[in-house]
Amino acid sequence: MQVQMLGDDFAAMITAKPGQALGDVAGPQALASVQQHGALLLRGFAGDLATFERFTQTVAARFIHNGNDSRESLGDEGKTRSVTPGSNFVGPHSEFSYMPFRPDVLFFYCTRPASDGGASLLWDGIRLWDQMPESSKALFMNRSIRYQYRQVELPFFAQFFGTNDADTILAALQSVPGAVCTRHGEHIDFEYNVPAQVYRSIDGAQAFSNSIAVFPQTGFDDASLLDPAIRADLLDIALRNTVSIDLQAGDVLIVDNWRAMHGRGAFDDPQRQICIRMGYFANDVVQPFSAALEEIEY
Fold first, then answer.
1. In DSSP terms, which residues pair with 245 in a beta bridge?
2. What is the pTM of this model?
């Protein structure tokens, strides 16, 4: 299969030959391309939602849901869901980068694209870090980002620890580096401090990969806030390096959730439908508290 690049050394596309089905794409080959290029678009391969789910299982070993009830459950006990509701622009972010359960890989499947607008947007975190002013790099190297949540339902965390026992979940959360949590009955107040950039051990690259743009209230672990001027500069760098993809029906987009950030363009079409699955590579119970959270593990 021939690979075509969609950006500068980032995001590849493989187009099907006549008669090829999504099941003809080897999972290990797709994974290797994602790890090399940061994202992979598969276009023109015959399939449906069930075929898509089966294909994702050849690339990733374990899947989760994001617990957001505003996203429609479309399959696999809620692990296949619609994307963020609404039709507004969504800025650059990495799924669950604001919690210690960041998935390794994201899978998007386009059932019906918007009639106008609604492009899928990608940003290469390595490129963004390279283009960032040295003063901003120093700021993020010396401080962690703080994300805060209130009244998170305890059952949400069960999928990460393989148990519904509240005491076990609380103990596990309290073992996560950078996490502070307080239980209030069946809810938890959760605070998570984590670097805004991640380090890729396979090549030494730094990737600016986080959710700062979609969490404007987020500050630093020393309780200081990010200067709005710096935030604006970061968004400007991102927008100047956007890879925009107008998904077609049947397209599958696979994204390295450690290297890349994603978002979408605004649109006006209530019939647009794109679903997402979030997966991990290791076929075991996720134990984020035992992982080196600064590193991308392949």
1. 120
2. 0.90
Query: In this predicted model, what pLDDT tens digit does every residue of 150-201 receive, in sequence order?
Result: 888 888 888 888 888 888 888 888 888 888 889 998 899 988 999 999 877 6
Q: What is the pLDDT of residues 6-65, one digit of tens each?
A: 998 899 999 999 999 999 999 999 999 999 999 999 999 999 999 999 999 999 988 988
The one-letter code for the residue type at 99 is M
Q: Rounded to whole angstroms, what are the CA distances from 151 to 154, 181, 216?
A: 9, 10, 20
Residue 11 CB partners (closer than 8 Å, separation 6+): 5, 37, 38, 39, 40, 41, 122, 124, 243, 245, 260
Q: Which residue has 């089905």 as its token pair? A: 21
Domains of the chain are 3-128+242-296 (3.60.130.10), 130-233 (no CATH)
- pLDDT tens digits, 243-290: 999 999 999 999 999 999 999 999 999 899 999 999 998 644 333 333
For residue 230, how many other CB atoms are within 10 A of its CB?
16
